[in-house]
Design brief:
Length: 97
């Protein structure tokens, strides 16, 4: 895995009420590249943030139709990963990489 793929597999953190509640259980949620698999996501997280990953769950959000002012528009689908970290470790999402 080269450096370009290392940073391309993780797109952004997902900050919602549910992901904030999951952070109390050592779980972090990231939006990831649709071509990324569990192994590449694990390598990327461990090398970028220097933490130990125990488990990764992946959720594929399919695209959907949204009606805005009577017109139908398409909302793009995406892939997100819920990453379980080793107990006692965490990732500070407020600081830049």
């Amino acid at each position: 895995m080269n450096k370009i793929n290392l940073y391309d597999s993780i797109l952004s953190p997902v900050v919602t009420e549910k992901s904030t509640n999951l952070s109390e259980m050592n779980k972090i949620v990231f939006k990831v590249n649709s071509m990324a698999d569990k192994k590449s996501i694990k390598k990327s997280i461990e090398k970028i943030f220097k933490v130990n990953v125990i488990k990764i769950n992946i959720i594929n959000k399919q695209r959907r139709i949204k009606i805005v002012r009577g017109k139908k528009t398409k909302v793009r689908g995406y892939k997100k990963a819920i990453i379980t970290l080793k107990k006692g470790q965490n990732i500070d999402l407020t600081t830049g990489i």
